[in-house]
Structure to design on (402 residues):
DNA sequence: GGTACGCGGTGACATTTGTCAGACCTAGTC
DNA sequence: GACTAGGTCTGACAAATGTCACCGCGTACC
């Protein structure tokens, strides 16, 4: 039996995935978690073969949880299952030691097949996504530019961001300006969208 | 047997929900659709008792599809199952004739229970959401203000929006300004976020 | 030692954005 | 007919935003 834990914040989706996998004779869902933090404690207790993680979760996200899990349970393989196939997500997921990257747009039957391939030692990646990740270069944003862009997401003004990051307003403007240019956008909103689409945040 | 069709754009979630409902002895998933448009053709063919719709779908969204379905198949009850419980969504869903409004945060076992209650003629609404909808007033945005706000979402400039909606730039600025005030925001980004949270878009 | 890069800052400048007052037209309501 | 609300427009103004040039500091790397 392949022992699997699920981490996914939406309870109904989590339960539905569990029932989907429950139909497979060789797969056993031995634990569930609603956040990255919860996953780590559950995995420590049940010692799964495979952890199936969503990226978008409250608290620690799926990619961060993947990295922690690789440290604490090296024998457990990590699979990322997420809504959006952003190239940057894939890159970060692979760097944090994931064995698979699936998107929720794929047919449901592929999930069990992917789990078996990962258990056999293969790496499973959506081919279209792999191509996109190779064609898109690495993240051009410096850490600070990234911080400033993220802080501007909820409609904050320059002075809000400056206060929040303990910077001068001029510095914030400079970072924002260079982030806008690096994303070849025309304003912060567009820059935020482009960077988000690439998975640079 | 209760005959159900599912409409949900993410194939894996759709398949998982189907397998979840497949476990219930009195529920039969007789059709699936990946968009609002597809739902209407599928429902016309299989004549279900209940349609379970996600809101966020490409093309016709779940609420619009609910309205159309009520016209073409008055005997079929509509249930909305969605990620976010925005008050405005609930209001619009109810106005378009939905019998239930569930959020994906709820436990998986509640889904089958809700389906049975709807089949029995009840209306099922998340109590916390109902309270939020009652406390939040109706949508204060005029149709044009709403259009302009939506068009500004992807980082468009004033002149982009003006060209797109065939308006003068001054007019766009005026609408945007009044939308910002009605949402008590400080700029369009914040206004967009507030309006989105309320389900006013 | 020189060079490059990221971080943090200043000051000046042009453009964009948000606000306000006012105008005209239409459709509905009392 | 008067009144209101929404839609469309203009012009003017202040504030916010984006760009540019330039400075200093530290830490890499060759």
């Amino acid at each position: 039996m392949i022992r699997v834990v699920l981490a996914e914040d939406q309870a109904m989706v989590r339960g539905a995935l569990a029932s989907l996998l429950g139909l497979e004779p060789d797969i056993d869902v031995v634990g569930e978690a609603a956040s990255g933090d919860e996953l780590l404690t559950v995995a420590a207790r049940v010692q799964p073969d495979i952890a199936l993680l969503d990226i978008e979760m409250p608290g620690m996200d799926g990619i961060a949880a993947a990295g922690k899990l690789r440290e604490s349970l090296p024998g457990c393989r990590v699979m990322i299952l997420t809504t959006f196939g952003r190239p940057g997500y894939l890159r970060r997921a692979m760097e944090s030691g994931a064995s698979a990257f699936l998107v929720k747009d794929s047919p449901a039957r592929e999930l069990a097949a992917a789990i078996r391939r990962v258990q056999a030692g293969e790496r499973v990646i959506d081919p279209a996504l792999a191509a996109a990740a190779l064609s898109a270069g690495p993240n051009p944003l410096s850490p600070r530019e990234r911080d400033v862009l993220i802080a501007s997401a909820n409609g904050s003004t320059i002075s809000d961001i400056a206060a929040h990051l303990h910077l001068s307003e001029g510095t914030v403007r400079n970072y924002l300006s260079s982030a806008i240019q690096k994303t070849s956008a025309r304003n912060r909103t567009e820059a935020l969208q482009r960077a988000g689409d690439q998975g640079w945040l």
